[in-house]
Amino acid sequence: MLVCEKPYSWQLLLDHNLLSCEDAVFLFDSKFASDTATMTSYDHLHKVINCMQVGKKVVLYKLKSIHECLYDMLNQRYSIDSLVYSIFCLICLFVFFFFLAKAEQAFFGRFERQYISYASSLPSLYFGKVSTFKKHLCDRYGLSGDEELLELFCGFNDDTIPSAISHILLQRKPQSQNDHETKQLTEKLLTLFYPLRHPAKIVDLAMKSFRTVNYTNQSFDTFEQVLDTAKENCNKEMLLILTCDLEYNSFQCKWNSKRISDYMKVNHLEKDVTNFFESSMTNILVLQYQHKTNDLTQFFQIKCILESAHSLYWKKSNNETPAKEKLVVLIVHNVMGQKNPFPIIFSQFKQTLFFCKTIEIFTNILLWKYFE
């Protein structure tokens, strides 16, 4: 059992290549309208049985509905004949908030438990750099405090900076700690945050004459420019766009995008994604999803579906039969004025922000990096 400090903390397993969509099956409590609880739970239990027999890892994300049945089923293998592959592994993911519920303590006590968070994953010598870099970030943009920091970087949270440090450390070789190395880390962190500026907040800061920061030469890419850049690495990356804009019909028609809310069952989405990668008629898939609460279950479910299909498609290609260019774009819509916007977490993707030419909005862009 893995107890996560935040709903997204378990993504660290993917970042550090401890899990991937290639060697694990991820099961979620489906939030699609017509996925009934009974049938979904039945299907999940059979998937677990199949994984037991072939030796695959199974990851259950907040699947409280099948815990008792699953526990009984796993215990039965000691009293009846059953096939369980020796390397079979079952991982139950829980958010710390639910772990504290008294009603669940008896169930939780049956498992070996591990705690995971972005802050605790950092090497000890980097703990103090979190607050130091936060000050650097405020100084760079002339921000007066945390409130303006949240306004400039929509979705900024306590794990944003720790995840950024972890992201950089994973991409480079270990180095000795010195002033030069610390300066390099700070510059790389500032570079990560630069594309995430909220354009409206930059304008607001520039209009306040008492600010000592130079806000000239601030540029923001358009939707088309971001797509062109993403196409260059579409074999390794998928594009995730975060916005506070609405699901405009004009945008949907122009880019032939599909709304996640129109899919009544998760297997309908899986079918469309599979058809996209198998078809030679189209090279871009644009999906739109509304993030209405702080529950990230459906987002992770969608993300795993896309990453699994993306990974399978590019693994099939080789030098003799190279795969055709395929770009996947997922647009996540925050609700205007939302208390819990989609969190900025530097994981296995890059991030940027842009204006759309036809709709004046602000948008965060995240590039999912394919697990190598």
What does this structure look like?
With 372 residues, the chain is an alpha/beta fold. It folds into 3 domains: 2-116, Rossmann fold (3-Layer(aba) Sandwich), CATH 3.40.50; 122-207, no CATH class; 223-369. The protein is built from 15 helices and 11 strands. It has helices at residues 11-15, 37-54, 67-76, 96-99, 105-108, 118-121, 129-141, 146-152, 160-170, 179-193, 199-207, 223-231, 249-255, 266-278, 297-316; strands at 2-4, 24-28, 57-61, 89-95, 114-116, 237-243, 258-259, 284-291, 327-334, 349-354, 363-369. The strands form 2 sheets. Strands 7-8-9-6-11-10 form a 6-stranded mixed β-sheet, with helices on both faces. A 5-stranded parallel β-sheet has the order 2-3-4-1-5, with helices on both faces. The longest helix is centred in the last third of the chain and has 20 residues, at 297-316. The chain crosses the membrane at residues 83-101. Keywords: Membrane, Transmembrane, Transmembrane helix.
